[in-house]
Design goal:
The complex is a heterodimer of chains A (572) and B (326). Chain A has 572 residues and is of the alpha/beta class. Chain A has a domain at 338-361 and 386-555: Rossmann fold. In chain A, 35% of the residues lie in helices and 24% in strands. In chain A, strands 6-7-8-3-9-10 form a six-stranded mixed β-sheet, with helices on both faces. In chain A, strands 16-17-18-13-19-20 form a six-stranded mixed β-sheet, sandwiched between helices. Chain A is globular and about 75 Å long. Chain B has helices at residues 2-29, 33-37, 44-54, 60-72, 86-121, 126-140, 143-157, 182-215, 218-225, 230-259, 261-268, 273-282, 286-314, 316-319; strands at residues 170-172, 175-177. Residues 321-326 of chain B have low confidence and may be disordered. Helix content of chain B is 75%, strand content 2%. Chain B contains 14 helices and two strands; from the N terminus they run H-H-H-H-H-H-H-E-E-H-H-H-H-H-H-H. A two-stranded antiparallel sheet of chain B has the order 1-2. The chains are: A alpha/beta (572), B mainly alpha (326).
Chain lengths: 572, 326
């Protein structure tokens, strides 16, 4: 049992650039034993994927291993030539990538890709390879494998595709699997299945697994050991229980403190204090200059009644032969003024479609939307619609594609103000500078372009843009899904402040249940276009009524072993 | 799939109908053919008689319908200059142009894709960079200049290849081919290179940039991570994915090879339809011009139809509509 499958010692990976040497990984150590799942956790840029690529010999040039050794079963493998590495790749060490949508060749059938790999590694005949491919598909839990083997990747759902990817990684019966964020792109329920599969494989075949992830929930539920990385360096390593339960290093402590818990509700997230990345958010200043509108009479700001949206699935000249897909099916709920209303659901449940209809980005196919007792779906004139749109603003999921890369940040933030003709001349620049100061970026950030900012900073730019028109209602569509956990904590704190100090009403859409529990006053659960259940957040988490809600909650990572250090003051 | 094909065929027919309208309008607006056909001592009765004979007294739509009816049957009228049916002249000339286009198209595609893949795989290699630099010449020099330079070098200075004409041809029924005689083969080399050079460099640069894009994709990295051979990864996984956008552009380019053959044919005095067209323009031989226009558009439309159908052969995502995951 003590034989180490994979032993990384003092590994440094350097990327020389024209200006300076970038050290992606600095003297990292990591070992994997048979049947062990070793988690590698850290935020983006920590160098965890680089370690995976270095082991596989797949570092992108000019990156290279500057020092240290990678040993496989006691034998040094770094420094092997291209052919030597190829003999190892796939055969002894396999890799699983993050996105199952892009890791399969769309033009070859699943079977072709499997057979090709099996033939190459095991030297079997075409027929035997195919038989083995079917066995593998069966093993990873794909129903009717002898039929599905002839299908193309696009005919599989995301979770099924990731199973195919795993089957491909298993083709050569590898001893070590490096899984690089294998479940990040998947829904909670699918994530649980895939992780279960990886656990089974490790146990059954005594495969060593390196599980690279940024998700503490995955680490807590799946791994035996964990190594924490920060800016290229290993800061802590040990058994999962020990590292998560009693972290020794300051960075690990702050990282764990920033993880939203499903079981505890905190008032504010502790800011990640390690590495001096504190940000200033001046909510009081912002609140002072905020024009608050008259409160609504009924106390309900937004009311949605029987909202329906259908999309054309396959067109035809004859109307009766057209097929429609009902994305949102008679959804009703209302949001009280000053409340944060959450919508949770898996991908395809229609939650974003609801948001887009409220934002009037989509036409409705039925049902009514009332905002401040006025029926939005009946607004006729462009002017009325503009007035409504000024009062609602949206923050999108992807901070990289939601900002125009060709516009300067101050132009981006000024755009809604100019569009709605709220201010003129110097007052616009003044508002922009003020907003940038308030979200902690500083007014000089306005002269830069979006690509000069990190994901979290960009999301703050998005928030500044959303606040520019002084809206009453903010739609946040998965605002933190693309962010690291410490950045997520910052953004969630900002959103909490906005709601508390500016009295903003929010629609908060997320698939992340722990985040929803921290953020929302009430929650609606959506499934396949229908609203399954609407309840007060605490009541929903404590005693879910519907089966589907219970199912969803049961799949949520428990995170029970996580240390609560640094959270004590905030627990409600 | 069938609906798609049907739709595309209908669209193609519409395009041809519009081109036919333009071609036909040329008869109406470029001058009165009666003036050309009757001499100085014509009487009003003669004019009226000829008008009725030719059907020119009919209203415009009726005339257009007649033109279409005849065109579909391969009757494009009589050439003013040669006094022979246009269809007959075209059949005589078409093989030369089609052969030239086929050879230069083949050169452009095979060499273009080959070099494109090579320069993409050896991205920073010396040879790849050299090819990329040289290819700029192919894109930037005008066709006629390349033709003249080639003639100067290989025909005038070295005397290896003929400077003009098609060489000896062999007849198979109405089709004449120069590909079976040594003089014919020699004669086609220079014009084919001249005509295909631009398309070749274009295809090469397109394949290269698409290939570089595809090589960055996860499925290529995953294929490498599975330990597959470089050759399998590059050709089986990467190249095929490169081809979808390449085919679109290549299809359009093949159409323009036929259309732009005019210049090359003029430079090399190649006896094809392009040269015929240039001569027809000089003599305002409208029936020939109109027929040429129709012929070129039929080919363009046909090639693009084939390109669209090729998508189905290459990309399985188009074959099963709407069944995939969203």
């Amino acid at each position: 049992m003590t034989e180490k499958l994979l032993d990384i010692e003092g590994l440094s990976v350097h990327f020389p650039t024209r200006r300076k040497l970038f050290v992606a990984v600095n003297k990292a150590n990591l070992t994997v034993e048979p049947g062990e799942i070793h988690g590698l956790v850290g935020e983006s840029g920590a160098g965890k994927s680089t370690i995976g690529a270095a082991v596989m010999g797949l570092l992108e040039r000019p990156g290279h291993i500057a020092e240290g050794t990678v040993s496989f079963k006691g034998e040094h493998i770094n420094g092997r030539d291209a052919d030597g590495m190829r003999a190892l790749r796939g055969a002894k060490i396999s890799m699983i990538f993050q996105d199952p949508l892009t890791s399969l060749n769309p033009l070859l059938t699943v079977g072709q890709q499997l057979v090709e790999t099996i033939q190459f590694h095991l030297n079997l005949s075409e027929a035997d390879s195919k038989k083995r491919a079917i066995e593998l598909l069966d093993r990873v839990g794909i129903p009717m494998p002898d039929e599905r083997i002839n299908q193309y990747p696009h005919q599989f759902s995301g979770g099924m595709r990731q199973r195919v990817v795993i089957a491909l990684a298993l083709c050569s019966e590898p001893d070590v699997i490096i899984a690089d964020e294998p479940t990040t792109a998947l829904d909670v329920s699918i994530q649980a299945q895939i992780l279960e599969l990886i656990k089974e494989l490790a146990r059954e075949r005594q495969t060593g697994v390196v599980l690279i992830t940024h998700d503490m929930g995955v680490i807590a539920d799946t791994t035996d050991k964990v190594t924490v990385m920060y800016q290229g360096e290993v800061v802590e390593s040990g058994t999962t229980q020990q590292v998560l339960g009693a972290p020794a290093h300051e960075y690990t402590k702050s990282l764990i403190a920033a993880v939203p818990r499903p079981t505890l509700k905190v008032h504010r997230f502790p800011q990640l204090s390690y590495g001096g990345r504190q940000i200033e958010f001046h909510i009081d200043d912002l609140a002072r200059n905020w024009d608050r509108p008259e409160p609504t009479k009924s106390g309900t700001l937004l009311k949605v009644d029987g909202l329906t949206k259908t999309f054309l699935q396959s067109g035809s000249i004859i109307p009766s032969r057209r097929k429609y897909f009902t994305a949102v099916d008679k959804v009703s709920f209302d949001i009280r003024e000053g409340e944060v209303f959450g919508i949770v659901g898996e991908s395809g449940s229609g939650k974003s479609t609801v948001a887009r209809m409220i934002a009037t980005l989509y036409q409705t196919n039925g049902g009514k939307i009332f905002f401040d007792d006025e029926e939005i779906t009946q607004l006729k004139t462009a002017k009325d619609l503009e007035t409504y749109r000024r009062q609602i603003q949206m923050i999108f999921q992807d901070p990289f594609s939601s900002l125009n890369p060709r516009m300067r940040v101050d132009e981006i933030i000024a755009e809604p103000v100019k569009h709605h003709k709220l201010l003129e001349g110097a007052a616009i620049q003044h508002r922009v500078d003020e907003l940038l100061e308030r979200v902690g970026l500083g007014s000089e950030a306005g002269r830069k372009y979006p690509h000069e900012f990190s994901g979290g900073q960009r999301q703050r730019i998005s928030i500044a843009r959303a606040l520019a028109t002084q809206p009453r209602f903010l739609i946040c569509d998965e605002p933190t899904s693309a962010l690291d956990v410490s950045i997520q904590a910052q953004i969630l704190n900002i959103l909490k402040d906005l709601q508390e100090h500016l009295g903003l009403t929010m629609l908060f859409i997320s698939h992340d249940l722990p985040v929803v529990r921290q953020m929302c006053d009430r929650v609606g659960v959506m499934r396949q276009g229908q609203m399954v259940e609407v309840a007060e957040t605490e009541a929903l988490f404590a005693a879910p009524k519907e089966t589907y809600t219970r199912e969803l909650l049961s799949l949520m990572p428990k995170l029970e072993g996580l240390s609560t250090e640094g959270l004590e003051d905030e627990i409600i | 799939m069938l609906t798609y094909v049907l739709k595309r065929v209908l669209q193609s027919a519409l395009v041809l109908l519009v081109v036919g309208l333009v071609a036909f309008s040329m008869f109406q607006f470029v001058g009165d053919p009666i003036d050309n056909m009757l001499g100085q001592e014509r009487t009003d009765a003669d004019i009226a008689r000829l008008r009725a004979e030719l059907g020119l007294d009919q209203p415009f739509p009726v005339q257009y319908y007649k033109f279409l009816e005849n065109a579909v049957q391969g009757d494009f009228g009589v050439s003013y200059r040669q006094g022979r049916p246009v269809a007959e002249i075209l059949v005589e000339r078409a093989p030369a142009t089609l052969e030239l286009a086929a050879v230069s198209g083949f050169l452009a595609i095979s060499i273009g894709i080959g070099l494109g893949v090579f320069t993409a795989i050896r991205k920073d290699g010396f040879l790849a960079n050299a090819i990329m630099s040289i290819s700029l010449i192919g894109v930037s020099l005008p066709t006629f200049l390349i033709g003249i330079l080639l003639i100067y070098l290989f025909s005038v200075e070295l005397g290896w290849l003929p400077a003009f004409g098609r060489g000896d041809v062999v007849k198979f029924g109405w089709w004449s081919t120069g590909l079976l005689t040594s003089t014919g083969l020699k004669a086609i080399i220079l014009p084919a290179i001249t005509l295909g050079l631009y398309q070749m460099t274009l295809i090469m640069r397109l394949v290269r940039s698409e290939m570089l894009e595809v090589l960055r994709q996860d499925y290529v990295r995953f294929a490498r991570a599975r330990g597959l051979k470089d050759r399998t990864v590059n050709f089986r996984h990467a190249l095929k994915n490169t081809l979808v956008p390449v085919i679109t552009v290549t299809g359009l380019q093949l159409g323009s090879i036929i259309a732009f053959a005019i210049i090359t044919e003029t430079v090399f005095q190649w006896p094809g339809v392009g040269l015929l067209f240039i001569n027809a323009v000089q003599f305002v031989d409208i029936p020939v011009m109109a027929a040429y226009l129709m012929l070129i558009s039929v080919m363009f439309v046909g090639i693009n139809l084939i390109v669209d159908l090729l998508y189905f052969a290459i990309d399985p995502r188009l074959r099963t509509d709407g069944k995939g995951a969203h």
